[in-house]
Specification:
By secondary structure, the chain is mostly beta strands. The protein contains no helices and eleven strands.
């Protein structure tokens, strides 16, 4: 079983910054892609950023140039540095990770989500 614990959300004014962290734990043999999704009220969950084990990132067009994702493979942790935040970045941010465990093989796990609110 894989558990993801997110931290770092909060309330910030437009133009401000926040840094999210997500740590994976459990009987993990190896990790694959880790990423961040967000869901605004009344909208579908959407990809924000993801990063491969080799450190190659992929971003949604709406956050390119403002957000940076990184990871620490030794600690099974992924980060999301969010700069120049806009009110439209408001939502619940979910961590997602693909991992291999002996019990389930390759599978995706979601974190519980952390609220990010950007005031104008």
């Amino acid at each position: 079983q894989v558990q993801l614990v997110e931290s770092g959300g909060g309330l910030v004014q437009a133009g401000g910054s926040l840094r999210l962290s997500c740590a994976a734990s459990g009987s993990i043999f190896t990790m694959d892609v880790m990423g961040w999704y967000r869901q605004a009220p009344g909208k579908q969950r959407e990809l924000v950023a993801r990063i491969s084990t080799s450190g190659s990132p992929d971003y949604a067009d709406s956050v390119k140039g403002r957000f940076t994702t990184s990871r620490d493979n030794a600690k099974n942790t992924v980060f999301l540095q969010m700069n120049s935040l806009k009110p439209e970045d408001t939502g619940v941010y979910f961590c997602n990770a693909r991992a291999w465990t002996s019990g389930r093989g390759w599978h995706d796990t979601w974190g519980q989500g952390t609220q990010v609110t950007v005031s104008s």
